[in-house]
Amino acid sequence: MRQNLTPDEALELLLTHAEPITELETVPLEAALGRVLGADLASQVDHPDCDNTAVDGYAARAADTQGATRERPVRLRLIGEAPAGRPFPARVGPGEAVAVYTGAPLPEGADAVVRVEETARDGDTVLLFAPASPKDIRPRAEDLEQGQVYLRKGEVLSPGKVGLAAAMGYPRLPVVRRPRVGLLVTGDEVVEPGEALPYGGVYNANRYSVGALVREAGGEVVYLGKAGDDREALKARLAAAGPLDLLLTSGGVSMGAYDLVRRLLEEEGRVHFWRVSIRPGGPLLFGEWRGVPLLGLPGNPVSSMVTFFLFGRPFLFRLLGRVDAPYRRVRAVAETPFKDAGARTAFWRGVLEYAPEAPGGFRVRSVGNQSSGVLRSMSEANALVVVPPGRRVGVGEVVEAIVLRPEL
Ligand SMILES: Nc1nc2c(c(=O)[nH]1)N[C@H]1C(S)=C(S)[C@@H](COP(=O)(O)OP(=O)(O)OC[C@H]3O[C@@H](n4cnc5c(N)ncnc54)[C@H](O)[C@@H]3O)O[C@H]1N2
Ligand code: MOO
């Protein structure tokens, strides 16, 4: 077992135990948002599939319309119309025009379009006040070329990518199976919201906060319930879990006599590392239980969320084969001081705001109370300010911040 790792060492070691999931599922487009694409996708079609018009107007031969102005309109003979999806059945000859509507295939023989605003109708005659131009034609395959790969394995399906997959002709998409993440809480004092709170009790916040972070990172939560501070109960819960890709526990990893997750792994499983030089979350544990990687999150509500975000989230990204980074880092100007955490790296909760005039383009202030028991701070924070060992940050200094909330 290794102890007192730096955050970078801990993350590196952790990721060596993350085996990317190879099983794929097929989901309909409506269910694809946020899923990770399991294969490269090539377009099944050209889009557009033929030259078409980008405007409502008239298609004609450019050569016939040269020099047209309001004072000296060019007159063409209207021979029919082509709404979108209904190609014009004949050829446009010299001196002729066809009424076209946005998206309609360009009629054969025509090589230019004039916008309807630049025209007037006089029975079967169209008056053009400007020359027809090829600029308003969208060439075949301008967007997508059949056989070209536009979406790649490991990409997360955003609204734009779901739309693109539809445009390429796919009704269903191959996606990576969601990692099954077991979540177990420990502590005799922990009770479910809705129950009466006994003296010294605390509502089970970690089940819901960490569970939400797991889902946000693309995992599926398998809640394993609460094990009291009792080893046999804990083992029974773990045994009932079914197949899992990652086990998370909350609590029971620090120094107390009741810190049973750590002892259980030490005696009957494996511990890869225990304790990382960070605040909050120093007692973080990583090991293995019956072949399943186990991340033992410290029980303090802030610590369990922060350590999941910094370590559990990158682990899930690796399992999912995601090609995007698990979090974004920005530079920001400190609006409040941030204290040091001695020889540890601090990840203090901050409120980050867009500030185009500031170096880095952001400013950040502390949420105030940085105690690991103050969960209010996580509800307010949208970033973690990184303070390297032994360094404190004064007002006006530039710091690095990890973005917690995707909407920022
Ligand atoms: N002598 C030492 N004591 C402690 C140390 C240390 O180094 N030496 N480290 C402290 C740090 S840092 C942390 S973090 C905690 C971590 O302790 P555990 O992981 O063993 O967690 P617990 O003791 O079980 O709980 C800590 C705290 O969090 C509350 N909690 C637990 N589970 C939940 C939950 N599901 N929902 C809401 N709140 C929860 C629990 O009631 C405790 O107040 O250890 C320090 N001690
Ligand atoms: O580091 Mo503990 O995680 O402060 O509360």
Automatic annotation (TrEMBL):
Name of one Pfam family that matches: MoeA_N
Annotated ranges, domain MoaB/Mog: 182-318
One MF term in the entry's GO annotations: molybdopterin molybdotransferase activity
Cofactor: Mg(2+)
EC number: 2.10.1.1
InterPro entries: MoaB/Mog-like_dom_sf, MoaB/Mog_dom, MoeA-like, MoeA_C_domain_IV, MoeA_C_domain_IV_sf, MoeA_linker/N, MoeA_linker/N_sf
Catalyzed chemical reaction(s): adenylyl-molybdopterin + molybdate = Mo-molybdopterin + AMP + H(+)
UniProt pathway annotation: Cofactor biosynthesis; molybdopterin biosynthesis
Family (UniProt): Belongs to the MoeA family.
Protein's recorded name: Molybdopterin molybdenumtransferase
The species this protein was found in: Marinithermus hydrothermalis (strain DSM 14884 / JCM 11576 / T1)
